[in-house]
């Protein structure tokens, strides 16, 4: 139960990357319940239940009544294509972030994230988690052949992710899709490679995993550029990583399956297998897209999908949660801002950086400032003491290094 629970949760959380910074908090609850409760269970029944039509497949007279069925070992389609399509619909329904696309000048503004090191840490956690995600899909380890299949899945996951990361980095540096050594592109490339390998990581030879990863990187960068060209704002490239990588992963199984793939067997059955992979992909896309349009459309109609413009411009931490992720008081430049606020509203309150003293006393603690310009605060022309001022704050002049604020 817990293992399948994490798969359902993953399909839902993929969407958050595409709707970040502009989606109402209540909308997260609604679409998460809808995806995990209605969309995902149907798809997982089709593909992984013993009675699902994609699992059962069909027999063909041309193959002497051999059965051919859809194959998706660890969820390239069931989890990632599903989540990627839902993310795409959500991003389209929401529209781009304010200032992202400038139609008149035909330019695209770069809106950067808060911390590349934290993004790198998150990428590492995902990379490590994928080993359990794919290896654990074997479900058992006590039967004959289980250990080999699990080991193959883990090794192929590492190989595909590594080659995809390397290829993404090179493509971005060689001016194919950019001109820099981008860490963020490398991280997303690695994730795309691991998404793509999910469908057949238990049946690929290691060298096939290299090819799957290399092509996954190209698919990722192509989808990423295409999203921008279409004016669809996806802050975390969730669609490119999950839908792009997942759809390529489903197709790759038909070619690189070491027993029945087109590049190995090259027979009619492998052709039918390609057909079943395409059918499974189309079915997942159609089911997910139709229901996602319904839920996001209803949220939009009831005006609970996107936050108001003012809240989006200011950021959602304070208006929605009253808990800033990066409080200004914790940073050097925040001390002078906090000091001014306290002087205007309550001159006897102790502020961070001036511990164990009120403003009636002489200021001797310099505080953990980032720059010397913030160290000397002159209140009403005196730098000797910070004297109390009236509660109304009328006539206050704050000067920092002879500059009035």
From TrEMBL:
Residues annotated as signal peptide: 1-20
A GO cellular component entry from the record: plasma membrane
Principal location class: membrane
Location within or outside the cell: Membrane
Protein name: Ammonium transporter AmtB-like domain-containing protein
Keywords: Ammonia transport, Membrane, Signal, Transmembrane, Transmembrane helix, Transport
Ammonium transporter AmtB-like domain span: 1-326
Keyword Signal: yes
Coiled-coil stretches noted in the UniProt entry, renumbered to this chain: none
One Gene Ontology MF term: ammonium channel activity
Topological relation to the membrane, as annotated: Multi-pass membrane protein
Any Gene Ontology biological process: ammonium homeostasis
Membrane-spanning residues: 25-48, 73-94, 115-133, 153-171, 183-200, 206-226, 238-256, 276-299
Species of origin: Magallana gigas (Pacific oyster)
This protein's record includes keyword Transmembrane: yes
Family indicated by similarity: Belongs to the ammonia transporter channel (TC 1.A.11.2) family.
